[in-house]
Amino acid sequence: MNKGILEVTERIIERSKQTREIYLQRIAEAKSSRVHRASLGCSNLAHVMAAESSEDKATMSAMRAPNIGIITAYNDMLSAHQPFADFPPKIKAALREVGATCQVAGGVPAMCDGVTQSQPGMELSLFSRDVIAMATAVGLSHNVYEGAIYLGVCDKIVPGLVIGALTFGHLPAVFIPAGPMRSGISNAQKGKVRQEFALGNIGKDVLLQSESACYHSSGTCTFYGTANSNQMMMDVMGLHLPGGTFVNPDTPLREAITIGAAQQVSTLTQLGDNYMPVGRMLDERSFVNAIVGLMATGGSTNHTMHLIAMAKAAGIQLNWQDFDDISAITPLIARLYPNGSADVNQFHDAGGMGYVIGQLLDAGLLHEDVNTIMGKGLRAYATETSIEDGKLTWNPAPIESRDPTVLSTVDEPFDHHGGLTMLDGNLGRSVIKTSALKPEQLLIEAPAIVFESQDELQAAFKAHELDKDFIAIVRYQGPKANGMPELHGLMAPLGALQDKGFKVAVVTDGRMSGASGKVPSAIHMTPEALDGGLLSKVQNGDLVVLDVEAKTLEVKVPAEEFAARAEARPDLSHDRFGSGRELFSSMRHYVGSAEMGASIFDSTGEEQA
């Protein structure tokens, strides 16, 4: 193993020793030596079986076979989740073949950030992760399942499902993806059209044609944002069946993978000899592997929050220093949009996850001796899957990239740094994605222009007030202020200014899209402006220095003058009502900082004080 990876892992283990021990004790106490439904009274059990077939009623009444619960994020507005419509009957039939039963335990909300970007509903997006976790708990609370299958793909959905699954950590868990849509127009072409629209050179009709040519069918969006970063992590953490993450929907291979994954969970219950509860399966090494995978592929910055919240649900304590240290020693071996021009279909064709995992294992950058749904060892995931003689088959992944412009090697990477850096300075701490930045963008020194919303910046851009070097301070966008929306609307105007030759950057306590990265963006600033953060004291014209190589972010104002300034406190009442935001006031009150996962839960599942 790489020495640096081992050191970070050991540090996390030591830091988490007490909370992890408490967690493992709790899931051990929740384990049953018999089927869980055996503890129900006859009337309770009759409710459970009432709608089932006579065959399934007989199986469930015998109290010998596992009953598996499905938690589904299906809706048919979200293209990534639309394929899940017919997964439950296929899963039920697959489990019936191996003598088990299965029921849809519950559904969870699944909103699309691609729809809500720059809309009021975006302010519910981050909070939806914790709502999904709670909805998962409601679905599994009936205590009639020996394992669970999770159907989810996109941004907050998978992290929420993982948190929920770990809350029921005594149950084995398998995650089944739906797969990416086939490629449409290139992401680079899409981005160019967006900038042309931002500049006023084309109309909305042309923009819609472009967007519809990119997002054109069922399946996950093909760029490498948070959704596909989720899927990468489920592979690296051993929660998927190997080799199937980026297989397109509505194909024989996708159906075979779904059936195989469903049957796999039945082998992991407490009724057999290979009991593997998800809370024990995912340990500190699993989360380190997830971070390594994120860095090696240039994944989404959103996971600097999601992974922390996910780990916390298992009693494991991660922090941004862990991410920064791992990024510094993990080579970037994938070039995917926005870090390159390829999409996930091209990534998959070039060798995909099997190739990436093989490269990282051989270099000692991943813990190989972890538990997965396939048993002991991550090497099972350095494979490709296919159907041979009617059966799902795994063969070793290629040891050479099929497209060196998309996948490189650990020895000759696209970059020796994982592309994520933590910045520290007199404004607080933040993270920045660097894998898509050019060398001249790693140091930006320019006067601040302060905005209280992305709408203000867009208005200034349209008024031609921003044709100059500047660093945009977009504040009061943190979780306590307005739920920490993604500020994706900033990218087109700032990207257009950057292409004109101006030095621009953004500093914010909000988030950026998982597909962003072209413009230097110091995001997730902690403390946030509404929670004592000094971002609230920055004024127009203050000189700001963003230095990636020095890992610093400083406002060059004398300390005495800066301390004497009053905080700016804009009226945030417009963020409190409409689109359901009034229902989330308690979450804004209780939510923790971005560096702590921006969660309303602590490591034991209780509300923060």
Automatic annotation (TrEMBL):
<dbReference type="InterPro" id="IPR056740">
    <property type="entry name" value="ILV_EDD_C"/>
</dbReference>
<dbReference type="InterPro" id="IPR000581">
    <property type="entry name" value="ILV_EDD_N"/>
</dbReference>
<feature type="binding site">
    <location>
        <position position="154"/>
    </location>
    <ligand>
        <name>[4Fe-4S] cluster</name>
    </ligand>
</feature>
<comment type="pathway">
    <text>Carbohydrate metabolism; Entner-Doudoroff pathway.</text>
</comment>
<dbReference type="InterPro" id="IPR004786">
    <property type="entry name" value="6-phosphgluc_deHydtase"/>
</dbReference>
<keyword id="KW-0004">4Fe-4S</keyword>
<dbReference type="Pfam" id="PF00920">
    <property type="entry name" value="ILVD_EDD_N"/>
</dbReference>
<dbReference type="InterPro" id="IPR037237">
    <property type="entry name" value="IlvD/EDD_N"/>
</dbReference>
<feature type="binding site">
    <location>
        <position position="221"/>
    </location>
    <ligand>
        <name>[4Fe-4S] cluster</name>
    </ligand>
</feature>
<comment type="function">
    <text>Catalyzes the dehydration of 6-phospho-D-gluconate to 2-dehydro-3-deoxy-6-phospho-D-gluconate.</text>
</comment>
<dbReference type="InterPro" id="IPR020558">
    <property type="entry name" value="DiOHA_6PGluconate_deHydtase_CS"/>
</dbReference>
<keyword id="KW-0479">Metal-binding</keyword>
<comment type="similarity">
    <text>Belongs to the IlvD/Edd family.</text>
</comment>
<protein>
    <recommendedName>
        <fullName>Phosphogluconate dehydratase</fullName>
        <ecNumber>4.2.1.12</ecNumber>
    </recommendedName>
</protein>
<keyword id="KW-0411">Iron-sulfur</keyword>
<keyword id="KW-0311">Gluconate utilization</keyword>
<dbReference type="GO" id="GO:0004456">
    <property type="term" value="F:phosphogluconate dehydratase activity"/>
</dbReference>
<keyword id="KW-0119">Carbohydrate metabolism</keyword>
<keyword id="KW-0408">Iron</keyword>
<feature type="domain" description="Dihydroxy-acid/6-phosphogluconate dehydratase C-terminal">
    <location>
        <begin position="406"/>
        <end position="598"/>
    </location>
</feature>
<keyword id="KW-0456">Lyase</keyword>
<feature type="domain" description="Dihydroxy-acid/6-phosphogluconate dehydratase N-terminal">
    <location>
        <begin position="66"/>
        <end position="379"/>
    </location>
</feature>
<dbReference type="Pfam" id="PF24877">
    <property type="entry name" value="ILV_EDD_C"/>
</dbReference>
<dbReference type="InterPro" id="IPR042096">
    <property type="entry name" value="Dihydro-acid_dehy_C"/>
</dbReference>
